[in-house]
TrEMBL record:
Gene Ontology MF annotations: rRNA (guanine-N7-)-methyltransferase activity
Task performed by this protein: Specifically methylates the N7 position of a guanine in 16S rRNA.
Record bears the keyword Zinc: no
Subcellular location(s) per record: Cytoplasm
Stored InterPro entries: rRNA_ssu_MeTfrase_G, SAM-dependent_MTases_sf
Protein name: Ribosomal RNA small subunit methyltransferase G
Claim: Transport is one of the keywords in the record: no
Family the UniProt entry places it in: Belongs to the methyltransferase superfamily. RNA methyltransferase RsmG family.
Residues covered by region (Disordered): 203-229
Gene: rsmG
Annotated residues for binding of S-adenosyl-L-methionine: 65, 70, 116-117, 131
Top enzyme class: transferase
């Protein structure tokens, strides 16, 4: 809890209420596995909260496939400056999320029952987040149309992050993304640190042009790869 205090600061009481709700209703309704209840803080809450390091101030965020609110609800707690839409297609999950938002009085959050691919014309956000939703090659197809030019997809990934980035290369090329990168956040707070795949969206014109030509593979720089817009 010492690390939780460091991460959440004055919002820790709100995070504690959320953790209690996850351990109770979240488990009862099948949104969190029974074995996860005893490790909610290190495996879920802190793991998600440190993603805030990679999000700019006052950003508009859409959390794709929000499920039980990971990472969307956690980010809304730790970063009240963010405006967050929790995007989730399943009714039982949006019901849970609505209850979370009301109970925690999260005034910076909207819950939307929809699939990402059905609302592409309604969003032009700064950041899209996702955790345990789909492989990157599928996730990119859903997320990139929701981003403004220069907006970022931040996908929480595990040991296969680099492999997923390689596998998604053809899709990312078709969308004309500006840059891709592997990031680790939360060093010294979570072990191992949280791994993010960061994908920067290109301009709409870049995407349509990219669909009609084969682009050369971007150059690696450490664990990042960049392509010019």
């Amino acid at each position: 809890m010492g690390i939780a205090r460091e991460v959440f600061g004055e919002t820790l009481p709100v995070a504690e209420r959320y953790a209690a709700f996850l351990a109770d209703a979240g488990v009862e309704r099948g949104l969190i596995g029974p074995r996860e209840a005893d490790r909610l803080w290190e495996r879920h809450l802190i793991n998600c909260a440190v993603v805030a390091e990679a999000i700019p101030a006052d950003a508009q965020v859409v959390d794709i496939g929000s499920g039980a609110g990971l990472p969307g609800v956690v980010l809304a707690i730790v970063r009240p400056d963010l405006r967050i839409t929790l995007l989730e297609p399943l009714l039982r999950r949006t019901t849970f999320l609505d209850e979370c938002v009301e109970m925690l009085d999260l005034r910076n959050v909207e819950v939307r029952r929809a699939r990402a691919e059905d609302v592409t014309k309604e969003f032009s956000v700064d950041v899209a987040t996702a955790r345990a939703v789909a492989p990157l090659e599928r996730l990119a197809k859903w997320a990139l149309p929701l981003l403004r030019p220069g907006g970022e997809l931040l996908a929480l990934k595990g040991e296969r992050a680099a492999a997923e980035l390689d596998e998604a290369e053809p899709v990312l090329q078709r969308f004309g993304v500006r840059e891709t990168e592997l990031l680790q956040v939360g060093r010294g707070m979570v072990d191992p640190p949280t791994t993010l795949v960061r994908v920067v969206a290109g301009r709409p014109a870049d995407r349509s042009a990219a669909a009609g030509r084969r682009q050369s593979a971007p150059r690696r720089a450490g664990r990042s790869r960049k392509r010019s817009s």
